[in-house]
Design brief:
Strand content: 25-35%
Low-confidence stretches: none
Order of helices and strands: HEEEHEHE
Largest sheet: 3 strands, antiparallel
Number of domains: 1
Distance between the termini: 16 Å
Strand order of the largest sheet: 1-2-3
Number of strands: 5
Shape: globular
Mean pLDDT: 93
Helix content: 10-25%
Length: 82
């Protein structure tokens, strides 16, 4: 529903613990979890507000992240704690 609503190729619902994030609902990404060290969601859960990253390639928090520099070449991110 989120992928269709926002016309994006990837949409996730993630659970985050101290070491990793699990994708409990996943469209457009072929993995079930990642380490928290590469997790955008780990940043999103630090606030009650929506985290919007217009271009991850130029954002100092994410520019060297392997999911930005390599597959799937993430650029835009929006996330909110549930």
């Amino acid at each position: 529903m989120a992928a269709d609503l926002f016309d994006v190729p990837i949409a996730l619902v993630s659970l985050v613990d101290k070491d990793r994030q699990w994708f409990k609902s996943c469209i457009g990404l072929g993995v079930a979890e990642t380490g928290r060290d590469v997790s955008f969601c780990a940043h999103a859960i630090l606030s009650d507000d929506v985290l919007v990253v217009p271009d991850a390639a130029v954002d100092e928090r994410f520019a060297t992240n392997p999911v930005v520099t390599g597959e799937p070449h993430i650029r835009f991110y929006a996330g909110a704690p549930l």
